[in-house]
């Protein structure tokens, strides 16, 4: 009996700890960029989708922007093509674009199915629907990498309609140029652009790392709160590089353009969204404008 009382007391204390955060973020928009290992492992998939559903049920307005790069690479291999990247971006010819769109739409509807199974309404769209994501062709250091788009405009009307009708929008990163050609978009870029355009309170990147560390080899060097000034200093002093650099630049861009807080979380940890949002300490890195903003929160 004592053990049972101890367990339910812990649960009660957890709920009490979460209460001020639930109140603070009620009716606020949260954009979750979903990718990495959390999309591959079925148990982690279930954990992430349950977290997003719970955010919705307690009064927040989540939006999912998902990737699918590993799945795209798998299917490209199945048709005998070689996957090529230039500075982390997939070289996308016409056939590769067809495969990418097929795979991303398949992933999209699978995520919708998982959300609906939990009794929460969701609608899957791509950036082509409602001309939500309009792009220009991206050129990397003068190199033509094919049908890869750089977002120039986000039309939020369809997303806002879905939120108003109590749906969770699930967005695949595919867009259209001015000639209505289909382009693949980096999912981090898409999530950042959507969060800025919709005026999100939070933007969350689910990754395969713990967060921002001053020493990538030392998990104890994790930085829980990072201001814009501190983020710029880390970049300038060479503490951030490789694949993490564009992600941090996206985070900085989002905060500078009105997103109040950007989170980098380890999507390999079960229920990472709840642990970061609704506990005092959190588990990842939160990037904010300045310390004054934190004090006024």
> Compute the gyration radius: what is it?
19 Å
Regions with little confidence, pLDDT below 50 for 5+ residues: 292-297
Q: How much helicity do the residues have?
A: 40-55%
On the 0-100 scale, what is the average pLDDT? 85
Specify the number of helices: 10
What structural class should be given to the helix and strand makeup?
A: alpha/beta
**Separation of the first and last Cα atoms:** 40 Å
* Spatial strand order of the main sheet: 5-8-2-1-11-13-14-12
Proportion of beta-strand residues: 15-25%
By DSSP, the count of extended strands is 14
Short description:
The chain is an alpha/beta fold.
Features:
single chain; 297 residues; alpha/beta; 8-stranded mixed sheet; two-stranded antiparallel sheet; 10 helices; 42% helix; globular
General description of the model:
This protein is an alpha/beta fold. The chain is 42% helix and 24% strand. The protein has helices at residues 2-24, 42-57, 69-78, 94-117, 157-164, 187-198, 228-236, 244-256, 272-277, 291-295, and strands at 29-34, 61-66, 85-86, 89-90, 122-126, 133-140, 143-154, 168-172, 174-176, 182-184, 202-207, 225-227, 261-266, 285-288. The longest helix is centred in the middle third of the chain and has 24 residues, at 94-117. The chain is globular, with a radius of gyration of 19 Å. Residues 292-297 have low confidence and may be disordered.
Helices, strands, pairings?
Elements: H1 2-24, E1 29-34, H2 42-57, E2 61-66, H3 69-78, E3 85-86, E4 89-90, H4 94-117, E5 122-126, E6 133-140, E7 143-154, H5 157-164, E8 168-172, E9 174-176, E10 182-184, H6 187-198, E11 202-207, E12 225-227, H7 228-236, H8 244-256, E13 261-266, H9 272-277, E14 285-288, H10 291-295
Parallel strand pairs: 1-2, 1-11, 2-8, 5-8, 11-13, 12-14
Antiparallel strand pairs: 3-4, 6-7, 9-10, 13-14
């Amino acid at each position: 009996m004592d053990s049972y009382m101890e367990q339910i007391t812990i649960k009660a204390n957890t709920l009490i700890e979460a209460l001020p955060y639930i109140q603070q973020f009620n009716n606020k928009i949260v954009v979750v960029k979903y990718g990495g290992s959390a999309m591959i492992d079925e148990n982690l998939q279930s954990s992430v989708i349950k977290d997003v559903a719970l955010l919705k049920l307690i009064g927040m307005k989540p939006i999912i922007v998902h990737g699918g790069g590993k799945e795209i690479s798998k299917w490209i291999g199945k048709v005998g093509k070689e996957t090529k990247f230039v500075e982390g971006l997939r070289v996308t010819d016409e056939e590769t674009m067809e495969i990418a769109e097929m795979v991303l739409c398949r992933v999209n509807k699978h995520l919708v199915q998982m959300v609906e199974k939990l009794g929460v309404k969701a609608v899957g769209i791509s950036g082509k629907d409602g001309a939500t994501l309009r792009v220009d062709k991206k050129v990397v250091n003068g190199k033509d990498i094919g049908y890869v788009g750089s977002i120039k405009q986000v039309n939020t009307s369809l997303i806002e309609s879905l939120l108003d009708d109590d749906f969770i929008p699930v967005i695949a990163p595919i867009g259209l140029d001015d000639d209505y050609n289909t382009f693949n978009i980096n999912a981090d870029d898409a999530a950042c652009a959507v969060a800025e355009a919709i005026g999100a309170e939070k933007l969350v990147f689910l990754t395969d790392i713990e967060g921002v560390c001053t020493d990538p080899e030392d998990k104890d060097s994790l930085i829980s709160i990072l201001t814009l000034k501190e983020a710029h200093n880390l970049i300038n002093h060479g503490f951030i590089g490789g694949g993490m650099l564009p992600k941090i630049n996206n985070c900085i861009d989002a905060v500078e353009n009105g997103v109040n807080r950007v989170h980098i979380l380890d999507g390999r940890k079960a229920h990472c969204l709840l642990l970061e949002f609704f506990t005092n300490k959190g588990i990842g890195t939160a990037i904010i404008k300045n310390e004054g903003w934190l004090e006024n929160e």
